[in-house]
Structures are given as structure tokens and as C-alpha cells.
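Colleagues,

For the teaching module next term, I've prepared a clean inverse folding example: a structure given as C-alpha cells, and then the sequence designed for it. I'd like students to try predicting residues themselves before seeing the answer, so please don't circulate the second half yet.
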């Protein structure tokens, strides 16, 4: 928790200093929001994969067949049996994101990263401004991850 507070404070200080000018949240908020969501999707998918019990405490009525990795991996295959092959065209490759919660969250994370690049303002900046952008977007990604993985799923009670 302490590291998060220090990072947030550092982000806010850098936003105000930004090498002589204020950081333009008006221009950057869409990309900061998409990269934050990307981190949140990543934190949730990692919770599913490695700490499912914490996910289940927050969402006790979640469909186990879709969200619980112990069972959901079978959704890719006919009758849940990998020896029978894919359930449908692409269920084990390019459409795997349609089969279970883990892969859907990974796909969503990737779409938010692509969205961040697509939405980022195209303007000439000096290297210091680019470095600040990298720091800001990395910080927001990790804040999104931390929000889900550590706060919502409360891994460290």
C-alpha cells in the first residue's frame, strides 16, 4: 500500500512539473483510461489464474464453468475432452477468447493496449515529454493492475 501511495504522489508531482509545463490530462485522459483498464483486466486475469479463491469470494455466483480455470479450460473442446478436438473452428486458437474468462480478460487487456496506441495524440514532443508519457502510462497500467489484484480481490488481508 505504501509503494502505491508513493507512486501516486510521484505521478501527481511530475504532472505539475512536466518540465516547465503542466501535463495535459485533457489530451491524455482517454489513453490513461484505456491503459488503466488494460492493467485492471490483467490483474483480474492473474487473480483468476493464480488466486481463484479470492475471485470467488468477490463473485460467489460466477459461473464456475466459465470463470474457474480448473474447469473452464475444457470449454475449448468437444464435450470438454481435448482428445475429441476443438469445440468449434478457432476455439483453441484465434477465438480462444470466447471460451473462458481468463482468455476473455487477456483479449480485453490486449484490445485496451491497442486502443491506447490508437487514441494517443499525435504531436511532436521533446524526449522529456515522451519519457513522462511512458512513465504516466506505465504508472496507470500498474495502478489498474494493483486496483484489481490487490484491492478488489484483497489478496493481502
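(Answer key — instructors only)
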Amino acid at each position: 500500500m505504501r509503494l502505491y501511495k508513493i507512486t501516486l504522489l510521484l505521478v501527481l508531482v511530475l504532472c505539475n512539473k512536466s518540465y516547465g509545463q503542466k501535463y495535459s490530462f485533457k489530451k491524455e485522459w482517454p489513453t490513461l483510461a484505456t491503459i488503466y483498464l488494460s492493467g485492471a483486466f490483467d490483474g483480474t486475469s492473474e487473480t483468476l489464474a493464480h488466486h481463484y479463491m479470492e475471485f470467488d469470494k468477490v463473485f460467489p455466483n460466477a459461473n464456475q464453468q466459465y470463470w474457474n480455470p480448473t474447469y473452464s479450460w475444457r470449454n475449448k473442446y468437444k464435450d470438454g475432452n481435448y482428445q475429441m478436438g476443438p469445440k468449434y473452428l478457432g476455439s483453441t486458437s484465434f477465438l480462444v477468447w470466447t471460451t473462458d474468462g481468463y482468455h476473455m480478460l487477456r483479449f480485453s487487456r490486449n484490445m485496451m493496449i491497442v486502443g491506447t496506441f490508437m487514441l494517443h495524440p499525435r504531436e511532436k514532443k521533446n524526449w522529456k515529454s515522451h519519457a513522462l508519457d511512458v512513465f504516466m502510462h506505465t504508472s496507470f497500467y500498474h495502478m489498474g493492475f494493483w486496483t484489481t489484484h490487490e484491492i478488489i480481490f484483497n489478496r493481502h488481508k
